[in-house]
Design brief:
Number of helices: 11
Structural class: alpha/beta
Number of strands: 5
Helix content: 55-70%
CATH superfamily of the largest domain: Cobalamin-binding domain
Shape: globular
CATH class of the largest domain: Alpha Beta
CATH architecture of the largest domain: 3-Layer(aba) Sandwich
Distance between the termini: 58 Å
Order of helices and strands: HHHHEHEHEHEHHEHH
Strand content: 5-15%
Strand order of the largest sheet: 2-1-3-4-5
CATH topology of the largest domain: Rossmann fold
Largest sheet: 5 strands, parallel
């Protein structure tokens, strides 16, 4: 059975809120030999994207949206326990996301798969002020700051925080990585705000983070920051 067909089946189960059918769906997927990583990457993630796309277009009721995202969160929690975890890479990640429950659901899939690849992850969820995030990364000094499934309303704070990280040299070796959420819906936004790396899905995220970062010249960073300061002053 194709992944597309499984996504369609799971979507119908989730919007009905049928918990027994959801458990039976996962049990059947396990019997078919679908791995936990594939369930999250190839079935849960595209189902989540379908739900969010329809909801943004007002093609799904609030009740169906809540039923589906809450039930999918349960399935993600249970499936994550079956992930095969690789040996530690020695790389630490501090992760945050947008303020809503669906944002946390998306980010949870991302951090679960990162942990399975050997990253050490601290996940703070959403609704955290950018100055608190900056203080945390200065204190814990992670190798990566991950902003996954951010909401449009988070962007001003994210821009300001990245500018401060660059200007004061906070945690010089730390890479800022973004993905999902508003970054998937606005082409070029990740580069515009100064992120080193970007991934559209949890499956791609680990590969992107393990790849060498795209160099950003000191001059381009300074010019970008100066441009933003002039715009604010205008």
């Amino acid at each position: 059975m194709s992944h597309e067909h499984l996504v369609d089946r799971l979507f119908e189960i989730l919007i009905s809120g049928d918990r027994n059918a959801a458990r039976a769906f996962v049990a059947e997927a396990n019997r078919q030999g679908i791995s936990a990583e594939s369930l999250i990457s190839d079935i849960y993630w595209p189902t989540y994207e379908m739900i969010e796309r329809l909801y943004r277009k007002d093609q799904m009721t609030a009740i169906a949206h809540n039923l589906s995202t809450r039930l999918l969160r349960v399935l993600v929690d249970q499936t994550a326990q079956r992930l095969n975890v690789a040996a530690p890479l020695g790389s630490s990640v501090f992760a945050v996301c947008g303020p809503n429950d669906p944002d946390e659901l998306a980010a949870q899939m991302a951090v679960d798969l990162l942990e399975a690849r050997g990253f050490t992850v601290s996940f703070a969820g959403g609704g955290i002020a950018s100055d608190e995030i900056l203080a945390q990364v200065q204190e814990s000094r992670p190798d990566y700051l991950l902003l996954f499934a951010s909401a449009p309303g988070d962007l001003p704070g994210i821009r300001s925080m990245i500018d401060q990280i660059r200007e004061i040299g906070a945690v010089r070796k730390m890479r800022v990585v973004v993905g999902g959420g508003v970054f998937n819906r606005a082409q070029g936004l990740a580069e515009e705000i100064g992120a080193e790396s970007w991934a559209s899905s949890p499956r791609d995220l680990a590969d992107v983070m393990l790849a060498p970062p795209v160099p950003r010249s000191v001059e381009s960073v300074a010019q970008n920051s100066a441009k933003k300061r002039r715009a604010k002053a205008a």
